[in-house]
Write a structure and sequence with these properties.
This protein is an alpha/beta fold. Helix content is 34%, strand content 22%.
């Protein structure tokens, strides 16, 4: 509680959980009068040197006056924040508002002095950097625009915290003290620094979970069966390289091991450190386990237990408390209701999951929110990669369950710079933070392929995240813009993932087709055309073709400069068996090695041995386990009998010995779809390497300050405001967007007067909501050449549709004929600002033929936006019509993008119709909505999802 002199209530929205540089977590919150004892205890654990650096003199203890000063804040001019772990302070920061004379002041003074103190045991963890982000956000909220800090020259670490933050700053030296002054307005560099720190911290937090040196399985049953006992067996049998412990409070005191694993009644009884705890106890017992793990210094938890948010409101609250409890100890959580995690690295060999089959080592990172989907994906990769080298196995696997804490975003941060992962496959039931996911996806996709199956689920239960209002199809389009390879099924996910893991990216869409079946070749050709590829006429080698014929034909196709990829089709020859399959596989592989820069795919029919032979390497493939995996009757899943492999994984081959394996598909459509995905992704990679820009020529016609002043004035009338016609025209005019003038026609005489003002010919339109933009309903009359035609049209409209008050008719000068289009921009609370484009009319609306891009849009993105709708040919001279002025259309899209990006108070813009003529365009209708912009999570300090 705060004293009577304090002017603001406790700002609970300043509380946040953050990930630190080493992957641990801390809680940042305001300091209150109740923290006096914590502050004193914290200060006693700070070294004399750190105290000297803070106060510029020996300062062994805080006086009562100091404690009062550092715990009593008004949360406006005096603010203190603390970073806590386990409820205790590990670092503090405070600011005091000052005036031009350097003395204490109140608003409108916009400068403050800032000072930090970090406990020595926690220095180097990035605590000060996180606190600086949060105290800076607090200061901006309270009208402070600049920080000043005085630091001793020897305090190199603290000077580095300020100088590395990326803010615009000024540095001086006087009286033996370094004085730093820096603006708090985020800059491109400060955001880049923040994002880089976020990536390192979140990546490290996932790395700690996936590469533990010691694991405790809590909840291991004393008898065979059950989740805990099964996970313990999987970890042991997979050959985990670290220390493994079995934990159950029901173990007898004299029991020292179970299944050859050291056994303990509690995590606290384990002598050495425990990096990861796998929790498999009933939900009501989990809090006790979390407390024990936190007290023992466990770094992370995988919670397999169910009974949380998936079970209803009570479980949702239990899940929130679980996360709060774990984060208080600096631990991160995978789960609850998780399926587990896997790391196939030879240095780790961790299978802390309920996977029925031991995955092979490889280069694919796999994430699934659903345990059932995770099982299916692992099983399909296991079957499709049978007998293969590590290139087509799994590097790491994470099943996040309810993803109460660790999410797909966190794992994506880890895979971005993981040297053991070349391809990322993700099954996402929903995207809780689309803005962040698209940012991370764009960066990851520029380095390695990211393939996603996206369900149509809701935000994760229990999360305090903004829900997107965008349709599922729009979010999917935005993901593709970010370089994500969007597929519809887990079959396509595996098909595409195996191609990308085994073959180079194609340099273009030209495909050569060859094989020993004319019919299968033609099916492949048709599939290529349907997917937008450019296939050549299939080469039929006839059913008499020998492996040598395949080798020669494939070598010629790969050597042809007009070919970017090759699809080989094969059907079995009469009387040939596995020996023939192996010979054909070797012929194809040896030919592909001669031109390693082009992808090769095989479509096989009833050649089961060929797929295995193609994926088997001649010298580095591990041998398949003898016999089928055994069926365990005591497996914990009651609904299904699941198989579990008992052999340890083979180590992946060294990089210099890994071979390029040829993927095989049982259907032409599947192979072609995977290749088309690869072609589109390769094109995105090439374009991403040379990103577009916003042309400087736009600036000449843009009055940004004039628009800002106009918006500020309009918002004084209300929080949410749809502008009138004149105000819309004025605001759009500040960005060089001219709206075709329309005058109200409340009567036939008023219509005639409006036409005289505008000049004939004119159009008469009904603008009532049920008739607006519905020419198909007859609410529009065009090319009215004189007063007689205008009066006749006015009488017809009122007779058909009602009184002028019901119709709201307007008169507008005729625009040059062209193609009617629609441009919209909207700010979504979760995804951010989105620009949309499509053709006007019921057909486009019915088919959902609209393209989307995230704002700000570059010139290249504006051009692709125009061309990405299915009806785009109508803009480029379809069936002999005149091509329209698409450069003018692209410029208009860029201006709308600039308007919304420069002024986030513009929360919605609609221009309909925009008639694009062979020369120029006309905006015939426009509306703008203003409102206070939604908070930008990506511009604020780093935080974990709130609870």
């Amino acid at each position: 509680m705060q004293s009577a002199s304090d002017r603001h209530e406790y700002p609970a929205h300043w509380e946040a959980d953050v990930v630190l540089r080493d992957g641990g977590t801390a809680r940042i919150r305001p300091i209150t009068v109740d923290d006096a004892d914590r502050l004193v205890s914290f200060y006693e654990q700070v070294s004399d040197e750190s105290k000297y650096y803070r106060f510029f003199a020996p300062y062994p203890r805080l006086s009562a006056k100091d404690v009062h000063r550092f715990t009593h804040h008004d949360f406006v001019d005096r603010v203190g924040l603390a970073a806590t772990v386990g409820g205790e302070f590990i670092a503090t920061v405070r600011y005091d508002r000052i005036g031009a004379d350097g003395m204490a002041a109140s608003a409108p003074a916009d400068e403050a002095e800032v000072a930090f103190l970090v406990q020595d045991a926690h220095q180097g963890r990035g605590v000060a950097s996180a606190l600086l982000e949060h105290i800076g956000a607090v200061a901006r909220e309270r009208g402070i625009r600049r920080f000043a800090a005085e630091v001793l020259p020897a305090n190199v670490k603290m000077i580095k915290v300020f100088t590395d933050a990326g803010y615009t700053q000024k540095r001086s030296f006087e009286d033996g003290v370094v004085r730093l002054e820096f603006d708090l307005e985020p800059t491109d560099r400060s955001l880049a620094v923040q994002y880089a720190r976020e990536q390192r911290a979140e990546s490290r937090s996932v790395q700690r979970l996936l590469t533990p040196g010691s694991v405790a399985v809590v909840g291991v049953g004393r008898t065979p069966g059950g989740v805990g006992r099964s996970v313990l067996g999987n970890i042991r049998d997979y050959g985990f390289k670290g220390h493994l412990y079995a934990v159950n409070k029901a173990f007898p005191d004299e029991q020292k091991e179970l299944d050859g694993v050291p056994a303990h009644r509690s995590v606290r009884d384990i002598d050495g450190p425990v990096d990861l705890a796998v929790v498999a106890v009933p939900a009501e017992q989990v809090p006790e386990v979390v407390a024990e793990c936190g007290a023992h210094g466990v770094q992370g938890l995988v919670v397999l237990s169910a009974g949380y948010a998936e079970s209803g409101p009570e479980g949702r609250e239990r899940q929130r408390e679980l996360v709060r409890h774990a984060r208080a100890y600096g631990m991160r959580i995978i789960g609850p209701n998780a399926f587990g995690i896997i790391n196939t690295s030879p240095e780790v060999r961790l299978n802390a999951s309920l996977a029925p089959e031991a995955p092979r080592p490889g280069r694919i990172g796999l994430f699934a929110q659903s345990g059932a989907i995770g099982i299916a994906l692992l099983s399909r990769l296991h079957r499709r990669g049978a007998g293969v080298t590590g290139e087509t196995g799994v590097s790491t696997f994470v099943s996040s369950g309810n993803r109460a804490d660790v999410s797909g975003n966190d794992v994506l941060q880890y895979w971005y710079d993981d040297p053991h992962t070349d391809v990322v496959l993700m099954y996402l039931e929903s995207i809780g933070n689309p803005r962040k996911f698209t940012r991370l996806a764009r960066r990851t996709a520029a380095a390695k392929p990211l393939v996603v199956v996206q369900g149509a689920g809701t935000a994760p239960q229990g999360h305090a995240v903004r829900a997107t209002r965008l349709p599922h199809t729009t979010v999917s389009a935005l993901l593709r813009q970010a370089g994500v390879i969007r597929v519809d099924t887990i079959t396509e996910l595996v098909d595409t993932g195996l191609l990308l893991a085994r073959q180079p990216l194609p340099t273009g869409p030209k495909v050569a087709i060859l094989g020993n079946s004319e019919s299968l070749g033609l099916l492949t050709y048709d599939a290529c055309v349907a997917e937008g590829l450019r296939p050549s006429t299939p080469l039929d080698l006839t059913t008499a073709a020998a492996p040598e014929d395949f080798h020669a034909a494939l070598a010629r196709a790969l050597a042809d400069d007009s070919c970017d990829a090759v699809i080989v089709t094969a059907i079995p020859a009469v009387g040939e068996g596995s020996a023939g399959d192996a010979a054909l596989a070797e012929a194809l592989r040896s030919a592909a090695e001669q031109v390693p820069g082009k992808p090769v795919l095989v479509v096989h029919v009833e050649l089961g041995g060929l797929a295995e032979a193609l994926s088997a390497a001649t010298s580095t493939a591990p041998q398949a386990a003898a016999g089928p995996p055994t069926i365990r009757a005591d497996h914990p899943f009651r609904a299904l009998d699941r198989l579990r492999a008992t052999s340890a994984p083979a180590e992946p081959p060294a990089a210099e010995t890994r071979e390029r394996l040829i993927p095989a598909y049982p259907a032409a459509e599947r192979a072609v779809r995977a290749l088309a995905d690869a072609v589109q992704y390769a094109q995105w990679r090439r374009e991403a390497a040379e990103p577009g820009k916003v042309p400087e020529s736009l600036d000449a016609a843009i009055d940004e300050k004039g628009a800002a002043d106009l918006i500020d004035g309009l918002l004084t009338r209300g929080q949410g405001l749809t502008l009138g016609s004149e105000e819309t025209c004025e605001l759009l005019g500040t960005y060089g967007i001219q709206v075709h003038r329309a005058l109200p026609a409340t009567s036939a005489d008023a219509a005639v007067q409006a036409a005289a003002t505008l000049g004939y010919p004119v159009a008469l339109k009904a603008t009532a909501p049920h008739l607006r933009h519905r020419a198909d309903l007859g609410g529009v009359r065009l090319d009215l050449a004189d007063e007689e035609q205008l009066r006749r049209a006015y009488a017809e409209l009122t007779e058909l549709f009602g009184t002028p008050d019901e119709l709201r008719p307007v008169v507008q000068g005729m625009a040059p004929r062209g193609v009617d289009t629609v441009i919209r921009a909207v700010i979504d609370p979760a995804a951010g600002a989105v620009l949309s484009f499509g053709l006007a009319g019921a057909a486009s609306q019915l088919l959902g033929d609209t393209a989307h891009r995230l704002i700000p849009v570059t010139d290249r993105e504006a051009a692709t936006l125009v061309r990405s709708i299915r009806t785009a040919p109508l803009l480029f001279g379809w069936r002999g019509s005149a091509p329209v002025d698409t450069p003018a259309l692209e410029e208009l899209l860029l201006r709308v993008s600039r308007l919304v990006d420069d002024h986030p108070e513009v929360v919605a813009v609609t221009m309909e119709p925009v008639v694009v003529a062979p020369r120029g365009l006309s905006v015939l209708g426009a509306s703008v909505r203003l409102a206070p912009p939604p908070a930008r999570d990506d511009l604020g300090p780093r935080t974990l999802p709130a609870y």
